[in-house]
Amino acid sequence: MLLPVLIAFYLFFPAVVLYLCYRFPLVNKIGAVIICYLAGMLVGYYVDFPPEAVQLQATFTDVTVAVALPFLLFSMDLKAWRRLAGKATLCMLLAVISIVVVTLGAFLLIKGQVDYGWQLGGMAVGLYTGGTPNLAAIKTALQVNEDVYITMHTYDTVISLLYILFLCSVAQRLFNLFLPRFRNTGISLVGASDGEVETESIDSYTGIFRKEILLPLLGALVVAGAVVGISLFISGLFPVDYATAAAILSITTLSIFCSLIPQIRGIKKTFQVGMYLILIFCLVVGSMANLKQLFTQINWPIMFFVTFCIFVSLFFHAVLCKLCKIDTDTFIITSTSAICSPPFVPVVANALKNREIILSGIYTGIIGYAIGNYLGISFAYILRAFN
After folding, report:
1. Of 56, 127, 129, 251, which one has the fewest beta carbons inside 10 Å?
2. Domains of the chain
């Protein structure tokens, strides 16, 4: 009985949230993303999920991200994005420098308290420049104790959610106080013809069930399914440790190619459909956070290590961006792709009301996937020499 209820909750609760955001300005100020995260965390705290529900959650996260990315990218303007690529690459380099420096500081602060600090350092550098696949690969390479790995993964999940909530709420206003504001490059929005300015909000779902909008969206779904299917085939040609990165890279590349086709790029509401799938993703991820374990069996050194790495590196990264005159939105989206990996990029971009930066976030996240294992393993062995 639990699984059908859980499926219905995941699929339809975001629609309720969107309706409440539309009806009540105060709810809209909080934002659909934050509400879905918090609702998911509450469900995860009060409901003990059986193994089949945990498997369902994993399936939902994989499917929603895989299908959402094509919908989000179909309407992107590649020519306009290319003007942002150089700045995004520099910002990613600054993110890598910040996490390496801050992780070294965290290691020195807990040195002597635990004998696996060098392993935490290696996993942190790989995780916060790449993503969870890098974390798992580095755990295997460094022969990290299973309990240490699970504890770090749990704390990272919960604290990263707090980090995302911060980015989606007050971060833009805060960092705008000392970083340059993002300058719009003039990317046209979904459904805008040449020379036409689209004024509709990227949050607007008005008219999405009208025949003239719904039928093309079903066609876009077929194209998105083909993109995902081809990408999964391609990812199967790679070793397991690199399959996730290969799949995301392939989905991104094929979706960008599709965006160059006017008939696909002109389909209305593709971005909104993609964001609805991302709201489902936020709801599911929130419900997967193990808050009970976090509060009942606290490993203070690991909790401190993870919290310090995420938030101190964020502000150190901001200082470096200030020196290099990088704008707030590029800084935030690059930090997102580094700390939390590409699937969270659309979440934050939507909260910033800036979809121009989605490609930059995914692009830098893929760079992180590629270098994360090399950086993490190398850094771990450097730290072990000082352990």
Report:
1. 56
2. 2-181+208-386 (1.20.1530)
